[in-house]
């Protein structure tokens, strides 16, 4: 039964993909020069003989761009001409560093807030005040204080990754069953051992969910942040290719952003299944 559903889902997904590519191909067919009131010789001379009505690249042009970009993804021909592998490496490095710094702050702080109602009430106004602020709103302040664009982007990733991890950790720790904590108290387990052997395993699925949400937001935000700071990264690559009017490379970069985001999400989904438990 499960295999049948999986096969039907795969066939439906494949059908939707073929339908999308077919519609895209029809929408980007080259316009006839005579229909536009221009002679074929003049259109060929001006290089617009194969231009579509919409101006968008066809699926075939995107495929050629994919093959060209992936044939040498790590080439470096100067500040404004680097391979997609280098650009993704810069973006992933910033995301992972900002995400790791956020985890170092959010998870221990979430434990403290979740285990102490007094601390929770004291810090809740600050969390509620700072949490809705867009991460990009911090960028001008970060650039002024840090005076380094790349480090400022890491700071923005830190900010946007912090809140989902903190809130989920607080919720996970505060939701640990009282019975388990009472047993630990009866056995006179030390606070550190209780946190590591009772609270952490029980709250781990919720914490991983927060980390998964944080990573998704971080990968979204880095594209916009790198468009602002320039220099390197997949966001800068998209903006630079737009300035070069290369829509094929823009669409190729969008595909790469989606694929990398999907892989990151799948990784955290796998980690979440590892720490899941049944009562």
TrEMBL record:
The chain crosses the membrane at residues 6-27, 95-114, 126-146, 153-174, 218-239, 251-271. SUPFAM superfamilies: MetI-like. CDD domains: TM_PBP2 (cd06261). Keywords: Cell inner membrane, Cell membrane, Ion transport, Membrane, Transmembrane, Transmembrane helix, Transport. It is found in: Cell inner membrane; Cell membrane. Residues 88-268 form the ABC transmembrane type-1 domain. It is a multi-pass membrane protein. Gene3D superfamilies: MetI-like. PANTHER family: ALKANE SULFONATE ABC TRANSPORTER-RELATED, MEMBRANE SUBUNIT, NITRATE IMPORT PERMEASE PROTEIN NRTB. Belongs to the binding-protein-dependent transport system permease family. NCBIfam families: ntrB. This is Nitrate ABC transporter permease. It comes from Thermithiobacillus plumbiphilus. The gene is ntrB.
């Amino acid at each position: 039964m499960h295999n049948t559903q999986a096969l039907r889902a795969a066939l439906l997904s494949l059908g939707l993909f073929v339908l999308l590519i077919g519609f895209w191909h029809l929408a980007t067919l080259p316009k006839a020069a005579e229909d536009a009131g221009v002679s074929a010789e003049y259109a060929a001379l001006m290089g617009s003989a194969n231009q579509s009505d919409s101006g968008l690249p066809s699926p075939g042009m995107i495929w050629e761009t994919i093959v060209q970009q992936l044939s040498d993804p790590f080439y470096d021909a100067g500040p404004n001409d680097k391979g997609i592998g280098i650009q993704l490496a810069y973006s992933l490095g910033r995301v992972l560093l900002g995400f790791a710094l956020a985890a170092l702050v959010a998870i221990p702080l979430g434990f403290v807030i979740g285990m102490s109602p007094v601390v929770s009430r004291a810090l809740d106004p600050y969390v509620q005040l700072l949490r809705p602020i867009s991460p990009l709103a911090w960028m001008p302040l970060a650039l002024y204080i840090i005076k380094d664009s790349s480090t400022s982007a890491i700071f923005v990733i830190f900010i946007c990754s912090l809140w989902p991890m903190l809130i989920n950790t607080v919720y996970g720790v505060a939701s640990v069953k009282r019975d388990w904590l009472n047993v630990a108290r009866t056995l006179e387990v030390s606070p550190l051992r209780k946190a590591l052997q009772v609270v952490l395993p029980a709250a781990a699925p919720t914490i991983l969910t927060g980390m998964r949400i944080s990573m998704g937001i971080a990968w979204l935000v880095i594209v916009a942040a790198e468009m602002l700071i320039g220099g390197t990264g997949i966001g800068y690559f998209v903006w630079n290719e737009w300035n070069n009017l290369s829509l094929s490379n823009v669409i190729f970069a969008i595909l790469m952003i989606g694929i990398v985001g999907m892989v990151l999400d799948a990784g955290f989904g796998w980690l979440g299944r590892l720490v899941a438990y049944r009562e």
